[in-house]
Amino acid sequence: MIYSIRIPQPDDLDAFRLAARRLLAARIEPADVVFTNAIGGTLFPDAPSGEEKTTFVPCSFVLLAEKVACHRDDARWPLLYQLLWRLTHGERTLMDQAVDPLVHRLRQMAAAVRRDQHRMTAFLRFRVVDDNDGSCCVAWYEPQHRSLRGTSLFFINRFASLRFSILTPDLTLHWNRRSATFGPGLSRRDAPPPDAVEDWWKRYYRATFNPARSNPSLMQGHMPKRFWRNLPEAAAIPDLVSKAGGRTDRMIRSSSTSR
Amino acid sequence: MRRARFTVQEVVDLTLEFYKRNYIEGLFLSSGIIRSPDYTMECLVRVARTLRVDHAFHGYIHLKTIPEASSDLVREAGLYADRLSINIEMPTPESLQKFAPEKRADSIRDTMRYVGAHIAEAQADRRASRFAPAGQSTQLIVGADASSDSVVLATASDLYDTYSLKRIYYSAFSPVPQASNLLPAQPAPLLRENRLYQADWLLRYYGFTATEVMAGTANGMLDPDIDPKLAWALRNRDRFPIDVNTADRDVLLRIPGLGVRSADRLLSARRHCRLRLDDLRRLGNSFRKMRPFVVTADYHPGPLLDRSGLRRLLAPPAQQLDLFG
User: Fold this and answer.
1) Dihedral, CA of residue A100, residue A103, residue A107 and residue A108, to nearest 10
2) Which residue of B has its CA nearest to A242?
3) Mean pLDDT value across residues B71-96
4) Domain DUF4130 spans what residues (chain A) (predicted)?
């Protein structure tokens, strides 16, 4: 018998946690569960709603699951349930076994989310927009995974004294200096227009680019091209990189003619 | 050489506007000497103080100290900066004398000692006032003088031990227009800089000494084609293969391609099962480098380790070394 579990919000770890408790209490094996986000999305019956059993799992599982829940891979819920099943069925130390294929795969998914969250904190750019209540900082950002919820505290701590909104295709975050609210995702059309300071920043970026240290492949490793379209300074990169060789040669020539 | 100058207020305003838009996470504050060392240092401190005191700026501030400035100014800088750095510039005092006669190696080291003492004091006593909580660092220019990697690493190792520096930055020399006649016209390869950083990591996290890393290298230079840990292993093959199921942590850390985090994961995994070759594939990204140097439950490299062509087998293809793309 196969059961269907509905997790409406794609990164809702609490919904997964409640469902998993019921599944474990009913002793339903991982192979007998299908996870979906749509009502009536599968032909299978819902899992039996019965008692919920408190299950003790290592703290490291929860930390891993918080990251994996934000991954875009549809396999995240079934894989997490498989891990949970094995942790509670005789393999209590499984989290320590980084070489186990399942643990390895989930750790890699968690690492991908962690990396994406880190990039979001580095590559998100605010633009100042004037509205009825004064000025507000607004950013449009397209994360690779569902990274806004996990980075929201970072932005709130760093910009606590500013009013700001972060818009992504999945979710929006609004901070009014006192409280945060989340709203539905928006589209690129809702991105704010450039403000006056952005031009200073682009000029600063061009001026501090050192052609003698230009290393395009390393640069793309740190700042992959898919993030460029929302980074104001990235528009200058192709030109700076293509001229780097010539500029370096001229520097070398002029330094040798001056001697 | 023509230089531009910002006023204190301009630097403060730009920093605040850039920080607010998340362009930057902090400020690297540095200046050439204007008028006098003390005047310059005063300006730098004023930027940091204005940001912290007048604007409650919480971003990171790395302040490059002017070594000849008075110690009171250095002390004040430590109140506002997260990290202080004092550039040693050249690997030897003789080179510093030759290339930057206006700088003095002993005053650089005096300032490092002064800063180090204040950092230690602030860390030891929670009631003491804040002083550069992210520690101190320095920068060393590589390739401007004739110093070998051996000399650079010996200096680095001495600096880490003496002043408990957090980081040493190695910077490949690049020529600037209208430079001094003493400087070379060719830039130092960025690859050399990269190898020095790898060797520096071996000193700080892998329990190597500078002497070990450099022993047996040609002309006191790190091998440009392969990383220094692999090069060390190839020169010390009698220490291998290492049994990953029994070796201690400090021995595991000597295996090429096995990083600190992978070694720790390996240690916790082997408490539960005997590790096999396939398990190692899932530990890091450098399985190919690791393989000839390890023994697992189901694998022994055998005579692979004795092959004279092993180095060629493990060295990456030449085009990957082109850092200038």
Assistant:
1) 60
2) B325
3) 95
4) 76-233
